[in-house]
Specification:
Rossmann fold; 348 residues; six-stranded parallel β-sheet; single chain; alpha/beta
Length: 348
């Protein structure tokens, strides 16, 4: 008589609300699958994030929760919870807000784990204290919630790196539709959803683009609809600079970034996407810290002046000058791009 197999673990993860954080959450999904290969992972996430989650082989199901930013959405959350009842054994809640823990509670998922925050007593039945010294990076905090509590207290646990699947057929269609050239491509991401203190000056991006075009590169400016004006400021009058902001879906950005030789980017969601497709990154930090949210790749160079006022983590510069960005020169970044390009050519 054969022995009955262990039941498959069904895990629901309540995901974060930012592009970069959602990419970093893949480190948690990878950890769960490595430890329980037969487990099934569902992710509760905003609808916009579905194209990113669909590029992660570890995710078995995406459960869309579309409520506006800052909106409570009680009826929407309750209806979703009713659909999820009886389908999951465990929930991992990544955000620390009260409302983010509601769906697993209302869905009566037996084991609900997350960090303490916003009086979530009762909503979570395994509340963990956040040790900021040990868990000093966002990605470490995500992975820790997928580990046993005693193991999560150590600082030496492994963090698998995100890796997004690339759709080469979609890339070929994009190259034709957008009129891209055969020149080696440099991606530029001038946006930062969090606020202007994280943004390198547009004049610096434009100067760098001019120099790169003169050196034989094509420049692709990527971002969402909010970044169209920034893309225009960089691309105007430059034939080999393509402003693709607002012209592509998030899934398209994955494929276009994978096709770039390098990217020059603020600390933004698309920076983490570029890291997850293996593209060389020139990462620009000012108000935020490369120690807290680094690109999760060895193929990156960090540009950070480390001024006495940095990192402030503010949305806008409290001192009004944004010197942490202004004083980071285009010449410095150009030299890094060209040096990396030469090295890649030599070893390629």
């Amino acid at each position: 008589m054969s022995q009955a197999s262990a039941p498959v673990s069904r895990i629901l993860v309540v995901g974060p609300s930012w592009v970069g954080d959602m990419v970093m959450a893949q480190s948690l999904f990878k950890t769960l699958k490595q430890r329980q290969p037969e487990s099934r992972i569902g992710v509760v996430a905003p609808g916009w994030s579905q194209p990113i989650l669909e590029r992660m082989e570890e995710v078995d199901e995406v459960v869309s929760l579309d409520v506006g930013h800052g909106e409570f959405g009680w009826s929407t959350r309750r209806a979703l919870a009713q659909r999820l009842r009886g389908r999951f054994d465990k929930a991992i809640v990544l955000p620390r807000s009260w409302k983010s823990a509601l769906v697993p509670f209302l869905a009566r998922i037996p084991h609900r784990v997350g960090f303490t925050g916003e009086q979530r007593y009762g909503l979570l039945n395994e509340r963990r204290e956040l040790d900021r010294a040990t868990l000093d990076q966002t990605v470490k905090r995500f992975v820790a919630l997928g580990l046993p509590a005693d193991e999560a207290k150590r600082s030496d646990f492994a963090i698998p790196r995100p890796r997004l699947r690339v759709d080469l057929d979609n890339l070929a269609e994009l190259r034709l539709r957008l009129g891209l050239s055969s020149r080696p491509a440099i991606g530029m991401m001038p946006g930062a959803e969090y606020g202007p203190a994280k943004q390198w000056p547009l004049g610096h991006f434009r100067e760098l683009a001019e120099r790169l075009v003169a050196d034989g590169f094509e420049v692709r400016v990527l971002g969402g609809p909010k970044d169209v004006a920034a893309g225009d400021a960089i691309a105007e009058g430059q034939a080999q600079v393509h402003n693709l902001c607002g012209q592509t879906r998030l899934a398209d950005a994955v494929d276009l970034l994978a096709d770039c030789q390098q990217v020059v980017t603020n600390d933004s969601g698309l920076m983490h996407v570029a890291a997850a497709v293996g593209t060389r990154i020139q990462a620009l930090y000012g108000s935020s810290s490369p120690a807290y949210t680094p690109p999760l790749t060895d193929n990156a160079e960090i540009h950070y002046l480390g001024l006495s006022c940095s990192p402030c983590f503010e949305r806008t510069c409290p001192l009004g000058h944004t010197n942490c960005q202004v004083q980071l020169s285009p010449q410095r970044v150009l030299a890094a791009v060209l040096a990396s390009s030469r090295a890649a050519f030599t070893h390629g």
